[in-house]
Amino acid sequence: MSGRELWADGRLRAAWAARDWPTLIRRYRALAGISQQRFGELVGMTQGYVSRLERGRLRVVSEDVIARFVRGLQVPIELGGVRNSGDESQQWAPSAELRDRIAHAHTTGRADLRTADWIGVVLSQHRRAEDTIGGRALWPVVRSQLDAVTQLIPLAAGAAADSLMLLAAEHAHWLSWVAWQEEQRGPALSWIDLAHGWAVDGGHADMASWAQRVRAYYSLTYGDPVRALRTAEAARYVGPRPLSPAAEAVAVHQEAMAAARLGERNRAARLADEAHALALRAPEEEERPGWLYWLDATRSQLQVADAAYACHRWRDAADGFRQALPALAGYPRDYAYYQARAEDAEQRA
Predict the structure, then answer these.
(1) What are phi and psi of 45, to 5 degrees?
(2) Cα–chain-centroid distance for residue 298?
């Protein structure tokens, strides 16, 4: 692996963001397959000094030493300024500076799009890594990446600017989702609204719909099914461009879940079947929107079972969960969740 490829690893990036030197050194050496001696050569340190750092016997406080890590390990530019914030509210909420940074009048298109493409690749890795690393650990990394993206947008024009707007929206959605899981409700809503606005500005119907769908999920989770249903319905009609089958499938499923919560079970069952049919029409993962990488046949089956559960069709729900569970063996958190769901449905059946 090249130095650049190593930095696609979520654990390595999280360790850098946290200034967790023991984890950083161990993870880098494991990925690169190098000794402490070779690591020391990269950063201009003796093997003994590296050993003490890796064992947590020393702390790095000198900016000069940190600069050696940046140069020797080829730390990506979007991670160069990552620091943990001591202000909890400032850490979670979007800043005014971030909101103001994106200009609608673009210039001559001289943005460094190679950096943007790299950040997009890394974000896709973070989506998959979140299940094992946890969103909180990656938060400062993704937040720093978003800063890098929004600094590029005013330097771009036309299709390049639109692509950067989508990348910014994807980051804002990720930050919203993690903030919601951390019970930071206000910041979560602020981030998802930014994601929706940037998606609309960039002309990306699928992402605009997805942001609406996530907002509907938040409303339903927070006990407001009426608002959830309105928002999910709106997620299907976000602009002149038609949605992809995958994006429409998740919007329709969210509409079904809200309808079920309101007692409209026949409508919910019809919508669940429609969502499943749309999901089965979705193309292979490489051709789906990046944030919908998970929507395969198994996840579609789980959505059908979730809708059956919400409609109190316990036997259908239990059978659906049981059929899908074997395919979740590599996802321990999801497996445990749906295992419990299946057992509850079976008890109620």
Answers:
(1) -135, 160
(2) 20
